[in-house]
Amino acid sequence: MTVKETDQAQWSQETLSGMGRAFMESRVLLSGAELDLFTLAADKPLSAEQMAERIGADLRALTIVLDALAAMGLLIKQNDTYQTAPSAARMLSADSPASILPMIRHSADLWDRWGQLTRRVAGPQEKEKSMRAFIGAMHVIGNALAPRIVSLVGPAAARQLLDVGGASGTYTIAFLEAEPQMRATLFDLPPVIEMARERLGAAGMLDRVTLVAGDYRKDPLPAGHDLAFVSAIIHQNSPAENATMFRKIFTALDPGGRIVVRDHILSADRTHPKSGALFAVNMLVGTEGGNSYTETEIRDALEQAGFAGVRIIHPDTRMDGLMEGFRPR
């Protein structure tokens, strides 16, 4: 048989990416079992504060995990309280005769061992962790999504784009391809700027882009733009860091200029979409103060920075949520 005949799975980028992220729900379930949250909330609804006090947990971290468990359907969240879903309680509460909790906890014990699989195969050397690998991964994700996002943004009236934290230029390229009269400024950390120079050069667009190296947490943003695009940035930041960044973007825009934020946009109860609730856990373990944010939280931060006319352009399904605001004239 040929390779084509035996390759029946017909793998897609979405399928493989989903397989690569499947550990996220597994880890949240395992942590819920290790913390015995399902037993704790089996009999009656409890608030995050009550549960944190009972198990001695960090309230912010526990709330993010509880919201993720609710998004997964294992807990039911109502009026800021959580209760184990009845069908889940039957199997995950330590007090249930049908409990499989010991087996789930055993899986949690296996977690660390499986985490060493690559080292077991390749030897003791550390796997290289580089910014280039991360930026490359962001390009893979963004490359397929960018044309649709740009279409949803509708940038026809803009002529000077500011791509904040623009990485290697995936979205900058998509905007410039959509609008031949547009020019752009890409702002990112110095090592990332060099990666952007490579990608923009290969795309033949360096003459339309100004590359500016800096750190938006510390440095002012270049002024003179009528559209600022902030893609997959706010989840890395605490609310205070986002407030500071939005004020800098407000200053960088001309009067009448527009900001568009692309990110997860959670429902008011922080459980939808499920991908956004799980991503909040990713930010909990990967950043000091990052999170997924609700529409209200993003709107309030933008309005406090001075933006008007703030509204949602596109609801979030897979980090394709879009919100906009305007610097008043």
Helix content: 40-55%
- What is the CATH architecture annotation of the largest domain? 3-Layer(aba) Sandwich
Q: Quote the distance from N terminus to C terminus.
A: 68 Å
Beta strands, count: 12
List unreliable stretches of 5+ residues: none
Radius of gyration, in angstroms, nearest whole number: 22 Å
Strand content: 15-25%
The H-level CATH homologous superfamily of the largest domain, spelled out, is Vaccinia Virus protein VP39
Neighbour order of strands in the largest sheet: 6-5-4-7-8-12-11
CATH topology of the largest domain: Rossmann fold
Total number of distinct structural domains: 2
Task: Provide key terms for this protein.
single chain; globular; Arc Repressor Mutant, subunit A; 2 domains; 15 helices; Rossmann fold; seven-stranded mixed sheet; 329 residues; alpha/beta
